[in-house]
Inverse folding.
């Protein structure tokens, strides 16, 4: 049976729209990430999964350890539900209520680590925690700054960049009695999050590969020097780096003790643009064909699930199965309906499904309350997404 027939048969009793995860693809993708990490543990990026049951499944696999969460309320929830006792909140928090809850709960305070990169973050945590212990990790700018720093390639995150910057900030952390400095993180978005084989743009691909090679070399040296400087001041439990697109090269750095990854589990279509790995599409959503306005057109109900980021065409979901469908340029993926053009449209009848891939990973789960988990040719389990549990953290 081909993939489309198998998915259609497995979900025949479910009314579209709905979302699924193909567990065989999901497990193969997880195994691929673990192979690429070559023995270093992978901290699973929860923003790219947004489903408690699947996070728990991933953490049960060899090679994965700990969660990289995206908000403190999320981390408190995951810790309280016993999903993990090692949760790094990857982005700074200004949520005083959640900080107070963290400080008041010794088990949560043992499990959760907060991200900091400036004095204001430290002041906020101290004000909430008093003299109760809170674990913190220092975020380091991993962007690439060629031409004497005049150009910045990468994400705008931490202002801390040099070994001296980070060591001086670490000293400030260490002076504050309630704060426990346990880790460093440096996420190289310009490598991990930028595919080096953009479709139909070979010249751009060559430029990206050259930039990434130089950035990798620069960052490996700088990261090692930063880790040495901070380890001269205090012990660290972990040094985190990387993401789905950079697992093997980040893990190869001696200074890095663990890598982060999440998107590669669902393998959304943005992650098809990498030369170093090829995952299998694991998370899909199905829309019903609701009308046939004209020959060569099949119009689906819903579908406007655009991804975050710079507003370009790649933010649109990808019509996946049947193959050979494309968007109407005037309508794109619409709020209530999505016309699809192409030869396959004439093979679709009202009531058939079209299968799509989201551009990014976890954002799909903000659109659906449940994921139907397909194993072989049947749905073996239906599990709530974060949204399905009433949790919309971002
Ligand atoms: C700090 C950090 N680490 C790692 C990642 C990589 O996550 P993924 O593997 O889902 O791309 C991200 C993604 O934005 C991130 O912000």
């Amino acid at each position: 049976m081909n993939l489309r027939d198998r998915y259609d048969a497995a979900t025949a009793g479910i009314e579209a729209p709905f979302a699924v995860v193909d567990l065989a693809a999901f497990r193969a993708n997880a195994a691929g990430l673990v192979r690429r990490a070559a023995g270093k543990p992978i901290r699973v990026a929860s923003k790219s999964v947004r489903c408690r049951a699947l996070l728990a499944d991933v953490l049960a696999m060899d090679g994965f350890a700990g969660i990289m969460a995206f908000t403190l309320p999320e981390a408190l929830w995951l810790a309280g539900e016993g999903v993990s006792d090692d949760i790094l909140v990857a982005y700074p928090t200004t949520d005083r209520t959640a900080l107070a809850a963290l400080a008041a709960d010794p088990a949560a305070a043992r499990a959760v680590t907060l991200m900091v990169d400036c004095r204001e973050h430290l002041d906020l945590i101290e004000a909430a925690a008093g003299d109760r212990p809170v674990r913190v990790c220092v975020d380091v700018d991993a962007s690439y700054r060629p031409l004497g720093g005049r150009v910045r390639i990468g994400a705008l995150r931490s202002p801390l960049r040099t070994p001296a910057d980070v060591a001086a900030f670490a000293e400030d952390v260490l002076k504050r009695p309630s704060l426990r400095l346990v880790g460093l993180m440096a996420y190289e978005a310009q490598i991990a999050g930028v595919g080096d084989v953009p479709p139909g743009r070979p010249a751009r691909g060559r430029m990206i590969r050259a930039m990434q090679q130089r950035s990798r070399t620069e960052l490996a040296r700088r990261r090692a020097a930063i880790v040495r400087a901070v380890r001269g001041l205090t012990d660290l439990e972990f040094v985190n780096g990387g993401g789905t697109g950079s697992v093997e090269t980040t893990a190869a750095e001696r200074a890095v003790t663990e890598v982060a990854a999440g998107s590669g589990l669902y393998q959304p279509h943005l992650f098809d643009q990498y030369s170093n790995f090829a995952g299998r599409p694991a998370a899909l959503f199905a829309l019903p064909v609701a009308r046939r306005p004209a020959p060569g057109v099949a119009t689906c109900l819903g579908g406007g699930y655009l991804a975050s980021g710079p507003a370009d065409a790649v933010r649109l979901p990808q019509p996946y199965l049947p193959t050979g469908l494309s968007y109407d340029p005037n309508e794109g993926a619409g709020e209530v309906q999505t016309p699809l053009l192409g030869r396959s449209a004439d093979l679709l009848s009202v009531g058939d499904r079209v299968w799509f891939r989201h551009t990014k990973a976890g954002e799909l789960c903000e659109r659906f309350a449940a994921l139907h988990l397909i194993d072989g040719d049947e749905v073996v389990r239906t599990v709530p997404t974060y949204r399905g549990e009433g949790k919309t953290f971002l």
